[in-house]
Amino acid sequence: MLEYRVTLLLRSTALIFGLSALAFIIRPEIAISIIDLTSSRELEWSFRVIGIANLSLAALMSLAAAFLGERGLRQTAAIMIFTSAATAVLLLIMPGGWNLWKILLVLLQVAVAAGYIFALKGRRRNR
Protein backbone atom coordinates (compact mmCIF):
# COMPACT_ATOMS: atom_id res chain seq x y z
CA MET A 1 0.00 0.00 0.00
CA LEU A 2 2.86 2.40 0.82
CA GLU A 3 4.48 1.75 -2.53
CA TYR A 4 1.23 2.37 -4.39
CA ARG A 5 0.52 5.67 -2.58
CA VAL A 6 4.01 7.09 -2.95
CA THR A 7 4.27 5.93 -6.57
CA LEU A 8 0.94 7.56 -7.41
CA LEU A 9 1.98 10.80 -5.72
CA LEU A 10 5.38 10.80 -7.42
CA ARG A 11 3.82 10.34 -10.84
CA SER A 12 1.18 13.02 -10.19
CA THR A 13 3.75 15.47 -8.87
CA ALA A 14 6.06 14.68 -11.79
CA LEU A 15 3.26 15.54 -14.21
CA ILE A 16 2.64 18.88 -12.48
CA PHE A 17 6.38 19.65 -12.38
CA GLY A 18 6.78 18.70 -16.03
CA LEU A 19 3.91 20.88 -17.20
CA SER A 20 5.05 23.85 -15.13
CA ALA A 21 8.61 23.33 -16.40
CA LEU A 22 7.42 23.49 -19.99
CA ALA A 23 5.48 26.67 -19.20
CA PHE A 24 8.58 28.19 -17.57
CA ILE A 25 10.70 27.33 -20.60
CA ILE A 26 8.24 28.32 -23.35
CA ARG A 27 6.42 31.33 -21.84
CA PRO A 28 8.13 32.49 -18.63
CA GLU A 29 6.45 35.90 -18.77
CA ILE A 30 3.05 34.30 -18.14
CA ALA A 31 4.31 32.47 -15.05
CA ILE A 32 5.94 35.67 -13.81
CA SER A 33 2.73 37.68 -14.23
CA ILE A 34 0.66 34.95 -12.54
CA ILE A 35 2.65 35.28 -9.32
CA ASP A 36 2.55 39.09 -9.59
CA LEU A 37 6.22 39.84 -10.12
CA THR A 38 7.63 42.52 -12.41
CA SER A 39 8.93 40.90 -15.55
CA SER A 40 12.41 41.60 -16.85
CA ARG A 41 14.68 39.90 -19.34
CA GLU A 42 16.88 38.56 -16.52
CA LEU A 43 13.92 37.20 -14.58
CA GLU A 44 12.55 35.49 -17.69
CA TRP A 45 15.89 33.76 -18.26
CA SER A 46 15.99 32.76 -14.60
CA PHE A 47 12.57 31.15 -14.99
CA ARG A 48 13.78 29.29 -18.07
CA VAL A 49 16.70 27.88 -16.08
CA ILE A 50 14.30 26.91 -13.28
CA GLY A 51 12.17 25.24 -15.94
CA ILE A 52 15.10 23.10 -17.10
CA ALA A 53 15.83 22.10 -13.49
CA ASN A 54 12.16 21.25 -12.88
CA LEU A 55 12.04 19.22 -16.08
CA SER A 56 14.96 17.09 -14.92
CA LEU A 57 13.35 16.73 -11.49
CA ALA A 58 10.10 15.57 -13.10
CA ALA A 59 12.01 12.95 -15.09
CA LEU A 60 13.83 11.74 -11.97
CA MET A 61 10.57 11.53 -10.04
CA SER A 62 9.06 9.38 -12.80
CA LEU A 63 12.10 7.11 -12.75
CA ALA A 64 11.97 6.87 -8.95
CA ALA A 65 8.31 5.88 -9.10
CA ALA A 66 9.08 3.20 -11.67
CA PHE A 67 12.23 1.61 -10.28
CA LEU A 68 12.73 2.27 -6.54
CA GLY A 69 11.82 -0.24 -3.87
CA GLU A 70 9.98 0.52 -0.64
CA ARG A 71 12.99 1.98 1.18
CA GLY A 72 13.86 4.28 -1.71
CA LEU A 73 10.25 5.39 -2.03
CA ARG A 74 10.10 6.20 1.69
CA GLN A 75 13.25 8.30 1.43
CA THR A 76 11.98 10.05 -1.69
CA ALA A 77 8.68 10.83 0.04
CA ALA A 78 10.55 12.32 3.00
CA ILE A 79 12.53 14.56 0.64
CA MET A 80 9.34 15.62 -1.13
CA ILE A 81 7.70 16.54 2.19
CA PHE A 82 10.61 18.84 2.98
CA THR A 83 10.82 20.42 -0.48
CA SER A 84 7.07 20.96 -0.79
CA ALA A 85 6.86 22.56 2.64
CA ALA A 86 9.91 24.74 1.92
CA THR A 87 8.42 25.84 -1.40
CA ALA A 88 5.16 26.78 0.35
CA VAL A 89 7.08 28.87 2.89
CA LEU A 90 9.10 30.59 0.17
CA LEU A 91 5.93 31.39 -1.75
CA LEU A 92 4.43 32.88 1.40
CA ILE A 93 7.36 35.26 1.97
CA MET A 94 8.01 35.99 -1.70
CA PRO A 95 7.86 39.63 -2.80
CA GLY A 96 4.91 40.69 -4.88
CA GLY A 97 1.24 41.03 -4.18
CA TRP A 98 -1.23 38.40 -3.17
CA ASN A 99 -3.58 37.03 -5.78
CA LEU A 100 -5.62 33.91 -6.41
CA TRP A 101 -2.80 32.11 -8.26
CA LYS A 102 -0.29 32.65 -5.49
CA ILE A 103 -2.74 31.35 -2.89
CA LEU A 104 -3.49 28.31 -5.08
CA LEU A 105 0.23 27.59 -5.49
CA VAL A 106 0.77 27.71 -1.72
CA LEU A 107 -2.24 25.43 -1.15
CA LEU A 108 -0.98 23.02 -3.82
CA GLN A 109 2.42 22.75 -2.13
CA VAL A 110 0.82 22.20 1.27
CA ALA A 111 -1.48 19.54 -0.23
CA VAL A 112 1.48 17.74 -1.83
CA ALA A 113 3.37 17.72 1.48
CA ALA A 114 0.26 16.46 3.29
CA GLY A 115 -0.22 13.76 0.66
CA TYR A 116 3.29 12.43 1.18
CA ILE A 117 2.84 12.52 4.96
CA PHE A 118 -0.37 10.52 4.56
CA ALA A 119 1.36 8.05 2.25
CA LEU A 120 4.14 7.48 4.78
CA LYS A 121 1.69 7.05 7.66
CA GLY A 122 0.16 4.15 5.75
CA ARG A 123 3.38 2.22 6.32
CA ARG A 124 2.83 1.96 10.07
CA ARG A 125 -0.79 1.02 9.68
CA ASN A 126 -0.09 -1.88 7.30
CA ARG A 127 2.72 -3.61 9.18
Which blocks of ≥5 consecutive residues have pLDDT under 50? none
Structural class: mainly alpha
- Kindly provide the radius of gyration, computed on alpha-carbon positions and rounded to a whole number of angstroms: 16 Å
How many H/I helical runs? 5
**What's the N-to-C terminus distance?**
10 Å
Morphology call: globular
Number of strands: 0
Mean pLDDT: 89
Strand content: under 5%
**Number of separate domains:** 1
Biggest sheet layout: none
Order of helices and strands: HHHHH
Helix content: over 70%
Which structural traits does this protein have?
mainly alpha; 0% strand; single chain; 127 residues
Structure description:
The chain has 127 residues and is mainly alpha-helical. The chain has 5 helices and no strands. Helix 1 packs across helix 2. It is globular. It starts with a helix and ends with a helix. The model has no long low-confidence stretch (mean pLDDT 89).
Question: Would you kindly provide a brief summary of this structure?
Answer:
With 127 residues, this protein is mostly helical.
How would the blueprint of this fold be written?
Layout: H1 2-26, H2 28-34, H3 41-67, H4 70-93, H5 100-125
